[in-house]
Amino acid sequence: MPSLPLTLAVITHNEAENIARCLDSVSFAAEKLVVDSGSDDDTVTIAKAHGARVVHQDWLGFGPQRNFATTQCAHDWILVLDADEYLTQELAAELQQRLPELMASGTPAAYLRRSTIYMGRPMRWYRPAVGERMARLYHRGRARWSDARVHESLHFEGSAPTLQMPFNHVNNPTLPHKQLKVLRYAELKCRDWLDKRKPVRMWQAPFVFMLAFLKDYLFRLAFLDGWRGFMIAQTAASYALYKRMRYYEMVNNPESVSRAAHILTHHGIDR
C-alpha cells in the first residue's frame, strides 16, 4: 500500500493492550510517532515492533503533550489518535482517497467522526458516542492544541471539512477503568480552574448532578441504549458534581492539592 506524507501521532503511558491495534490501523502513514511519558509495561517495545518511532517526554498535560508531539513529527500533516482508538477500514479508505486533495489545499484541518465501543458493544443512540465530530487531522503550521491539562482542543482559523466514515474508540474496558479516569480527569480540570482562579460556585452543586444526568440520559438519547446508557449518564453526572466538590476543597484547603497529587501518583492514577 503506498504511503502518504502524513504522521500518525499517539501519546502513550502504559498502553501495551491497545497500541498495536491503533498503529496497525493507519498503514498508509509515512511515519508513526509515539510520544511516551514513561510506560513501565511493554508499550514502547510493541510500538517499535509495529513500525513506530518512539520519543520519550515526561508528562506535560494533554494539550502540551500533543503540542510537543507536533514538534517531533517528520511531516506537516498530522493525524492524532489515542492509543485506545483505531481507524475503521472504511475511514482508512476514505482518508487515502481524500488526503492528497486536502494536503494540496490551504485547509487547516479536518474533522473525523468517532464511534464509541462501551462494555464490548458499540453505542447506538447516545449522541456523543455515535459519530461525535472531532478535529484530529491538521496541518501543524495552521493549527495548534490548547494548553489545557485535560479536555484539550485543536484551535485553527477557517473552515474544515468533515470526513464521513468513523473511527472507533474502545471506551474503558471496565467500570473500574472508567472511575479511575474520572478521578484523574477531575483532578486535572480542577488544577486548570485553580490556575485561572475560577470562582467557586458551590451553590450550583445541588442542581449539577440532576441537570447533567438529564442532559445525557434524555436529551442526548442515552436512555435508548438501555442500562449502558444509564451508566454513561450517571458517570457523567457524578463527574460534573465531583469536579465542583474537589475544586471547593482545593480553594479552601490548598494543602490538599499536593497531598492528593502524592497519593494519586503513588497509585499510578496521576504522573
Helical fraction equals: 40-55%
Structural category is: alpha/beta
Largest sheet, described in full?
A: 9 strands, mixed
Distance between the termini: 39 Å
Mean pLDDT: 96
Helical segment count: 8
What can you see in these coordinates?
- There is one protein chain.
- With 271 residues, the chain is α/β, with parallel strands linked by helices.
- It is built from 8 helices and 11 strands.
- The strands form 2 sheets. Strands 1, 2, 3, 4, 5, 6, 7, 8 and 11 form a 9-stranded mixed beta sheet that branches.
- Helix 1 (19-24) links the parallel strand 1 (4-12) and strand 2.
- The mean pLDDT is 96.
Brief summary:
The protein is an alpha/beta fold.
